[in-house]
Amino acid sequence: MLLESKLYERTVQRRIAISGIGLFTGQEVHLTFSPAAPGTGILFRRMDLPHCPEIPAVLSKVISSPRCTTLATEHASIQMVEHVLSAVYALGVDNLLIEVAGPEIPSGDGSSLLFVHALEQAGIVEQSSQRKGLKIQAPISWSEGSVHLVALPADEFRVSFTLHYPQSKLIGSQFYSFVVNEKQYKEEIAPCRTFSLYEEIAPFIAKGLLKGGGLDNALVIKEDRVMNPEGARFPDEMVRHKVLDLIGDLALIGSPIAGHVIALRSGHASHIAFAKQLVLAGSQREESLEVFSHSYVLENC
Question: Quick check: pTM over 0.85?
Fold first, then answer.
């Protein structure tokens, strides 16, 4: 049975710690989720640096970085935030302190399952502040070359993604579309791992830029076959992971979204550019974006 929750912000009920290997450094990284006050948003704190500098998860703190989304201030940076932010958004957490002892988020198995399980164990509770979100009122688009993103009016947050890898017969063209909600996300999106063609990552491995990368935390395709012994978790795991990434990048807007986002061949850089355009449209054109009271749909246990 499904129940609709009250329209309030949410945080975790208690602290919970997890750890894992960093994809880029290959070092063990410790991460802790802690409750945060209403209106805080998502806040990273680098516990391994002097004075424990904080980095808010907002679009203005994004810096360019290959193959992942990185946030930075003048005092600190944190890599690979998209997977944890994807889980945080999908599970409906508005305010959260994420303490990290290291320069990147632990990779887990390359999906967002590590973070989903931790958030569930921490418990999620409502807070006193009413929750607001952004509702798309008119089409908004962003394009560059063969990459396109469009947001259309809708009463729910739907993501549709088309992936096109003509250089790989195994991947080819894949399409996936779903309404973002906790239950579907945990079943259909969270288990999907980051993926790459072996030929694409071989130069990074040779240069020592992926010290923690391997078949334990990525889906690797070589010569049109999956190198991972267990194979793919879904026939279209690749495009599902792109949906996971897109949700995590759009989470940097800092508000829940009501609208249908359609993406074609997009990646982290284009997601961030599109998210900035959504925010800009909201500030310039009142008819494009409006504030709405957003409710979560929760599974009644």
Answer: yes
